[in-house]
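Homework-ish question, so no full write-ups if that breaks the rules, but can someone show me the predicted structure for this set?
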Amino acid sequence: MKITIDSSLCSGHARCAAAAPEVFRLDDDGYALPYDGEVPPELQQAARDGELACPERAITVEQ
Ligand code: F3S
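A: Not a homework solution, just the prediction itself:
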């Protein structure tokens, strides 16, 4: 599973990090940072939770 964050859509709502802080981190301005590499199995549900939490649909989770 991979996570793509469209920085042109991210508006800094921070709901991804609130829903799944173990997956999503924010930069100093409150925008989501890229997630590098594969999401381990134990974090995949959290990744989906963060995807659904973003009101801008800036997060895409793909198998
Ligand atoms: Fe950005 Fe959406 Fe998270 S707007 S900070 S990716 S909730």
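Now go work out the reasoning yourself. Hint: The chain is about 25% helix and 15% strand.
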